[in-house]
Specification:
By secondary structure, this protein is an all-alpha fold. It has one domain. The protein has helices spanning 2-19, 27-38, 44-67, 73-97, 101-130, 142-159, 164-173, 179-204, 207-215, 217-241, 244-267. The longest helix has 30 residues, at 101-130.
């Protein structure tokens, strides 16, 4: 068990390092790592831990992006009007479906990631065709941005993720942001929305799940430290060494790997 725990700890550091530069919190991998690697059930306690690690990634990487001015304050304010209420709705959904959470979680993950892959590929293809054009970008679409961010906030609570998989395509498509600012703004969404989701989840947790968190407090704290170190170093590496095209390619690659894993798991049901 010690060897497995050390391996999971190393993986958590690696996930934070990889996800921080692309505007994602890592929840898509934190949940399966702890679920499959440590045997935790997919429930509110696991969601609270995944969201806590995601919050650490978002703050560790988000502050680094903020220092470099890689965020858009206008898009942030618009999106939060949908994302925060969406996160609260998501906690209510988790409470209602309870014992069916494992199956619903994986189905929604596959649907969400497939959509994000489609939008990311379309956006990359469009930019490739128009990169030499003088055509001006279209104006931001506030309503579409708020609705998309609201869906992201809801899925953040339902799937225990940062929802960068939703925020980044939404910010690029409806906020008309270039990749680095979309990534930085996505992290800023998470810096606010994820703590809201954590607090709401904790309020809804039954006593036995609180006991589980208490028993694993030291392990969770170690995971948080490793997550912070991974996120800070990953963000710095990404801003220094990765081009915007490379960032989007990595974003797309990770989405494909995760959707394949969840699809394979669902087929086994």
């Amino acid at each position: 068990m010690i060897a497995e725990t050390l391996f999971i700890a190393l993986c958590i550091f690696a996930v934070a390092f990889m996800f921080a530069p692309i505007g994602m919190g890592g929840g898509m991998l934190f949940v399966p790592l702890i679920h499959y690697g440590l045997g935790w059930e997919i429930n509110g306690a696991l969601f609270a831990v995944s969201l806590t690690l995601t919050a650490v990634v978002s703050w560790g990487s988000g502050l680094a992006h903020r220092r470099e001015d890689y965020f858009d304050n206008s898009a942030l304010k618009m999106g939060l009007r949908g994302a925060v209420p969406g996160a609260l709705v998501g906690v209510g959904i988790v409470t209602l479906i309870d014992d069916k959470m494992d199956f619903v979680f994986k189905v929604l993950s596959v649907m969400m990631i497939t959509w994000a892959i489609y939008k990311t590929v379309r956006k990359m293809e469009a930019e490739s065709k128009t990169e030499d054009d003088s055509e001006q970008p279209t104006e931001p679409q506030p309503i579409a941005l708020q609705i998309g961010a609201g869906i992201g906030g809801m899925l953040s609570s339902v799937l225990a993720i940062g929802a960068g998989v939703i925020y980044v395509p939404i910010l690029r498509t409806f906020g008309q942001l270039e990749p680095r600012k979309a990534i930085g703004t996505s992290l800023h969404f998470m810096m606010i929305v994820v703590p809201v989701a954590i607090f709401a989840h904790l309020l809804a947790l039954p006593s036995d799940m609180f006991s589980k968190l208490g028993e694993e407090f030291l392990l969770i704290l170690i995971f948080m430290v490793l997550t912070f170190l991974g996120a800070r170093n990953g963000a710095r590496y990404g801003m220094k060494y990765l081009s915007e095209k490379q960032l989007m390619q990595i974003f797309l690659m990770i989405l494909i790997v995760v959707v394949i894993r969840y699809t394979a798991d669902l087929i086994g049901f």
